[in-house]
Specification:
Belongs to the universal stress protein A family. 41% of the residues lie in helices and 22% in strands. It is an alpha/beta fold and 277 residues long. Helix 8 links the parallel strand 9 and strand 10.
């Protein structure tokens, strides 16, 4: 799946959930894990030993190469700098699934890293009801035809091919943001046709790689439909772009991704592109 992953930790419940999930991946894939504890000098006293000790104890159980370090600085900047200078190809982080977490390392910082990280970020909610199964068998990919969704699909297809997982391509026709009444049959039909064409292309790409793909179009609030569909198919992972297309083609992503991150009952892998639309 990856070769080198970074797991920032502060000893909190969400951070431990991310650490456990990273451990499951590491044990199966024998990848190198970087455990990073960031001390924020502006956040008051820091009990460094406990999170690092927990990380080292966990590391001894994975059988994978592990590097653990303590850095001082603003958490978001420290995480991104570490990822860039240590050539990691993914970051695994926990989140509380809500706003207002103040200066804790993980929470609002996770959203900032998701927005700015040049590598995929695997977000794990620290909640008992969250499904965290590995190896992956079922992957949901919401797509809308944007370059950001295309990048997410590329990543998902690569993972699915490697793990022999099934891809579920989901296109949500959410007409509310553009002010279309669902009784406006002509305009609604245009959105549905566009969604079908996006799915056709996604299935074609999957078939070219020999990846099994399911497809569906749903109507309604994008982030709610993504969560409901993910639960219905017992998905192990959701893969999403961090932005989506505005205007006529604004079917899915963007702020939707952030809402999914706060409510998803499975880990969410976010894929970022620098391209603006």
């Amino acid at each position: 799946m990856f070769e080198r992953i970074l797991v920032p930790t502060d000893g909190s419940g969400p951070a431990n959930a991310a650490l456990e999930y990273a451990g499951a991946i590491a044990a199966a894939e024998n990848l190198t894990v970087h455990i990073l504890h960031v001390i924020d000098p502006d956040s008051g006293p820091d009990e460094t030993d406990e999170p690092i000790a927990d990380g080292r104890e966990w590391a001894g159980e994975t059988g994978s190469p592990v590097i653990d370090e303590v850095h001082t600085g603003e958490p978001r900047e420290a995480i991104l700098e570490y990822a860039a200078t240590h050539d990691v190809d993914a970051i695994v982080m926990g989140t509380r699934g809500r706003r207002g977490v103040g200066r804790l390392l993980l929470g609002s910082v996770t959203e900032a890293v998701v927005r700015d990280a040049p590598v995929p970020v695997l977000v794990v909610r620290g909640a008992a009801e969250v499904r965290r199964e590995y190896p992956l068998e079922t992957i949901v990919v919401p797509i809308d035809g944007s370059s950001h969704a295309d990048a997410a699909l590329d990543e998902a297809l690569s993972i699915a091919k490697e793990l022999d997982a099934t891809i579920h391509l989901l296109s949500v026709v959410d007409v509310a943001p553009v002010g279309i009444d669902e009784r406006d049959d002509i305009r609604l039909e245009q959105f549905e046709q566009y969604a079908e064409s996006v799915l056709d292309e996604g299935v074609k790409r999957a078939e070219q790689l020999g990846v099994d793909a399911e497809r569906t179009v749903q109507h309604g609030s994008a982030h709610r439909r993504i969560r409901t569909y993910t639960d219905d198919v017992d998905a192990d992972l959701v893969v999403m772009g961090t932005h989506g297309r505005r205007g006529l083609d604004r079917l899915l992503l963007g702020s939707v991704t952030e809402r999914v991150l706060r409510t998803a009952t499975t880990p969410v892998l976010t894929v970022h592109t620098d391209e603006t639309e």
